[in-house]
Amino acid sequence: MITKCIFPVAGYGTRFLPATKIQPKEMLPIVNKPLVQYGVEEAMDAGLTDIGFVTGRGKRAIADHFDISYELEHQIKGTGKERYLDSIRNVIANCTFTYTRQQEMKGLGHAILTSRVMVGDQPFGVILADDLCVEQSEGVMAQMVKLYKQFRCSIVAIEEVPMADISRYGVIAGECIKDGLYRVTDMVEKPPADKAPSNLAIIGRYILTPDIFEILEKTPPGANGEIQITDALLQQAKDGCVMAYRYRGKRFDCGSVDGFVEATNFMYTEYYKHGKL
């Protein structure tokens, strides 16, 4: 059973400056809820209630958010405003939280390697909070947990993207096992369009087996001089098996201003106005 989920949240969020000069980008609100809380709720709904954050300097607001604010609770106790805390109270009551710092920004692979102290020798999920995934019937991580129970190997979530945008993503090639599910045969980080093996791009949802840590320790810096999780996963695919899953749902790239605004408008129109947030 998978119970652990890692959130790499050490990045600076430079595309949102000056808003992120002090405020972590993961704490920017999509309507009335911080972006990172959506990811934690998705993990919780999938049964991943041991939440680990790989943080950096200036990220203390995340830890404070997933804790009780006694002063605030006292001020609004017994008022109609108390209901606004229902969602975060539910998360705090059902999850445990652990934090470690990534002291240098050396890429997603390095951030995941840093989480080893929190994960140990268990399989685990990884959620990149920048990717807000919305699916009413079953969250993306819950879909992937079901697949893991069947295949017992690392799994990455993928979607088809326009070739004009492919250089922004890790990209897979693979053998189609069934509709929407591939056994990975190749994986490239941010290739130019003319060298991309497909238009199937990896998004910010992973389930990883613990042997990934040993592979990451031996993985040299790749694209942008960073330790890339795609390089480690390709080695894992060559040594054994990695699956790629075309998930059900809608994704917003909230690491970009355009995607953030699009997500806000969608969540307001489809959820907040109908009392679902």
Describe the protein:
31% of the residues lie in helices and 26% in strands. With 277 residues, it is of the alpha/beta class. It has one domain: Spore Coat Polysaccharide Biosynthesis Protein SpsA, Chain A (Alpha-Beta Complex), CATH 3.90.550. The strands form three sheets. It has a five-stranded mixed beta barrel with strand order 8-11-9-10-12. Strands 2-3 form a two-stranded antiparallel sheet. A two-stranded antiparallel ribbon has the order 7-13. The chain is globular. The mean pLDDT is 94.
Summarize it.
This protein is α/β, with parallel strands linked by helices and about 280 residues long. Helix content is about 30%, strand content about 25%.
Radius of gyration computed on alpha carbons: 18 Å
- In CATH terms, what is the fold-level topology? Spore Coat Polysaccharide Biosynthesis Protein SpsA, Chain A
* Global mean pLDDT: 94
Give, in order, the helices and strands: EEEHEHHHEHHEEHEEEEHHEEH
Strand order of the largest sheet: 8-11-9-10-12
Please describe the biggest sheet, giving its number of strands, its sense, and whether it closes into a barrel: 5 strands, mixed, barrel
Task: State the fourth-level CATH superfamily.
Answer: Spore Coat Polysaccharide Biosynthesis Protein SpsA, Chain A
The number of distinct structural domains comes to 1
CATH architectural type: Alpha-Beta Complex
The top level CATH class name: Alpha Beta
What keyword list fits this structure?
277 residues; Spore Coat Polysaccharide Biosynthesis Protein SpsA, Chain A; 31% helix
